[in-house]
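#data-curation
PF: Archiving a pair of folding outputs for the training set. Convention for this channel: one message per protein, sequence first, structure tokens after, nothing in between. First:
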Amino acid sequence: MCGMTVIAVPFAGEGAGEGELSWGQQDIWGSMRRDRSWLPIGFARPVPPGTTVEGIADELRWCVSRYPSMRTRLRFAADGRPRQVVHASGEVALEVVDAPPEADPAVVAKGVQDRFQETDHDHATQWPVRMAVVRHRGVPAYQVMVVCHLVVDGLGALVMQDELARRPSGPGTALQPLEQRTPAAVRRSEAALRHWEHLLRTTPADRFTGSGDPRVPRYWEVHRTSPALHLAVGTVAARARLESSTVLLAAFAAAMSRVTGIAPLLTQLVVGNRFRPGLATAVSPVSQTALCRLDVAGCDFGEALTRTWRASLAGYKHSYYDPSALGSLVERVARERPDPAVVRCGFNDRRGLTLDVAPVDPAADPRAALARTTTHVERRQDKPFDPCYLHVLRQREAIVLALCADTHLLGPADQDAVLRGMEETIVDAAT
């Protein structure tokens, strides 16, 4: 049995006020409603020797004071729409959990993280951050932190981690969520909506016809872990003078075209948006999805790379917009077009969140590494997720292609064919 005490940590910071959710927050809120989850993200990690409870409390105080998103609660209008309320001061709880002497503190910390993530969150009355320190035999051993996704996205978490290590004394320079709806941003939103409308009106109608192999549970996530891709993708990108993400996206479009026969392919890309003024160091969710039309059927991979680069660049340019206005646009186009285009595919390159990556040996043979590729089903569930969404992850010496798909549209054999086809295309291009 673990003992526990709770310390009230006071905080005070600038930027208090009330307003609409930022566009990135609106996107996250939509995902939260669809998934029926508060989308907690966090960690349980060992602390360096000499760490004290007071030191961790000071970290918590510093973060909540510096970042308005960490001291934000929601207020709901009569129609259910949320507004953000940033508080100037308050107190946030720090749990101090004492693990039994015979217990493994890592196991205890993981249990605390699970409890934090599985406990419902009240957006109107609770702070969006939960933190604990796990002591073992009286000495801090682990730190646990869980935040609501409305606070931060993956790249914002890296910004927070860096600033926490440096503790800059000056005020933050990033636009805060209450400040992000500028006149320039509104103009960019209007241009983005015109881009979306053009693609939705001119792309051929949805042609996913069914997989012929529907399964129960319906939704599968398949992982293909490829050391060969780790070795090959950089070579292809360097030769083409493109980002490796473009290489992976082109291979995805080509594989989908071969397996399903669908071309062009409407695909949503997750875009960090941190290249935009004021957002590089934002500790708040600023990622949104871009829409691009990938037409790579019948061309060689070199041409596919060029077409993908052009299409994705147009998407990135138009990836900052008002989600509410986009929702209204999509509904209007669907009413006015009898055979609407439907966006079923998505692509999210999440490799930037993994920092421990082995360097690539230029003499290594990607083709020889194919023998070490593994494929497994990570999860099967009836709870819906996006019909066909590829996440690109990274291990120290491998790239992981994680394909989430509705087996009623893309059966297990087709999922495997898409992932295998991506790997083969890139390795062939590199060797």
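PF: Second:
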Amino acid sequence: MLGSGCKKFIELDAPKTSITKANVYSNNEIATSVLTGVYIKMSSAGITSLTSVKTLPFLTGLSGDELSLFGTNSTYVAYYSNSLAANNIGAKTYWSEIYNTIYTCNEAVEGIEASATLSPAVKQQLLGEAKFMRAFNYFYLVNLYGDVPLVLSTDYTVNTLKPRSPKSEVYQQIIKDLQEAELALSSGFVDNTLVNSTNERVRPNKWAAKALLARVLLYNQKYAEAEAKATEVINNSSLFSILPLNDIFLKNSKEAIWQLQPVNTGWNTEEARTFVIPSTGLSDIIPVYLSNQLLSSFETGDQRRASWVNSFTNTTVTPNVTYYYPYKYKVSARNAPVTEYSTVLRLAEQYLIRAEARAMQNNLSGSADDLFVIRQRAGLAKINFASQQEAVDAILHERQVELFTEWGHRWLDLKRLNKVDAIMSVVTPLKGGIWNSTDQLYPIQFYELNANPNLTQNPGY
């Protein structure tokens, strides 16, 4: 039911009897394995596979100004040149896979709420995890596609005919789910029993819910609330702290709020496996490298350029060609000890959220203080802002060089701050395409439109 990585992840033997929908949520261990399966699916997905939100750094990096493409894979070229079409197979896969995960979360919410046999602690934690994961996936759906069907049940007859709900309505549900998850989830990090504490940060807890909620509130221009929520996370210094650049993405890092445990046998993270260019060079398997736009955005002396960017030189051509690639995750060798975990949420983002929220409330000194926490670690000087716009521009730049190739931040930032047209009208022609403002939303695939007569296409497709 959950794939070969399940035992490694939760350290449980597979059930020896068949499992039916009726009894999944009658047993603590089996019910727990449902949400574990969601995390396994995320962790095991290849960055280039188009099978989960895990591919966000790749797809949005291609769509935006972070990555350059090597090769002629037609799906990747469509994202890269901002020329997606509704008949592109990648558009179909991405949409449907995210909704598959949401369906699993809906089924979990229904089953957990109806269960009379789960222990109270397990029931509460699982319900929080299911709502957190539903909110997490809807956050990306609504930011990639705009208005989307808001599916909250497992009723197939209703779900297949759902029209698109306004983005504001979807966000209301995301906020509701995260607020309820925050109340339900554990304060510390728990193991597969959902009761005992652990050093592993691989199951969401209430701090993950707070962190994602802070982001969602910022995106919805609820600046005072976003500041307050980010502050709650920042102030929990017993669990979280800003670490040196090369320690951030390690297993059980104190900067990590939520991580994914590697489950693909013989490998550390899928990020390193995809982004680190091997001695054999770029290929259809390792098809991307960092763009000139991103490389030129680093200030002189920025230690992130030295720590998080590496290079490969192709000496088989004349003149030699050097490619630069993301090096946040460094362990790409097969069968190396597992020392790195994919980090989904981390503390640095909370400082950047609070910096922006404070700037939008004209607390420019507080904003500058928060930004300096991130800049100081990178070896850069403090910036004092003369205006709100100056602060917002500086924060956008800092987010670009701090969060590059992490979970789609750059692409979503350009859109929400209304910078996407100005940036992409310059960048897209360099990638061989023509930018249209409608390209900032991905298309819904023809298959989905044909299956649901109440579903409408995004403009421009």
